[in-house]
Specification:
- It is a single chain.
- The chain has one domain (2-114): Translation Initiation Factor IF3 (2-Layer Sandwich), CATH 3.30.110.
- It has 2 helices and 4 strands.
- The protein has helices at residues 2-17, 63-81; strands spanning 31-33, 42-53, 85-92, 104-114.
- The chain has a 4-stranded mixed sheet with strand order 1-3-4-2, covered by helices on one side.
- It is globular and about 60 Å long.
- 28% of the residues are buried.
Length: 116
């Protein structure tokens, strides 16, 4: 009986670890951009980074879920900082030399509070 319970717990841990990061309430309004915003319209709040996937769990996630999870982390961080805009400075897959499949996405970004 204990082996079945341990097996069930192990499967549950793997499944939950493979789930992408979810958006917090309000973070859906945070804008992701690829062009640095104007200083006239936006106030710089700070830098953030986000990473989703990994060597083990990235194998069980689709490329879209990996990207979505990393973007959700950026939006959640911006919301916590009081920002409404994230300028993504750099995105990369740090494991690309190991496999042709995307296993990880890391984003380096800056957070702004913009008046649109």
């Amino acid at each position: 009986m204990k082996i079945k319970q341990l097996y069930a717990i192990g499967i549950l841990l793997v499944v939950t670890a493979c789930a992408e990061t979810k958006l917090k309430e309000g973070a859906e309004r945070v804008l992701l951009i690829n062009i640095e915003p104007s200083e006239k319209m936006c106030e710089f709040l700070g830098q953030v980074s986000a990473s989703e996937g990994g060597m083990i769990f990235g194998e069980f996630m689709s490329n879209e879920k990996i990207k979505e999870g990393a973007y959700n982390q950026l939006k959640n961080s911006a919301l916590a900082m009081g920002g409404n805009t994230v300028y993504i400075k750099r995105s990369y897959n740090r494991l690309k030399h190991l496999t042709p499949v995307r296993l990880n996405q890391t984003n380096l970004a800056t957070v702004y509070l913009c008046a649109f």
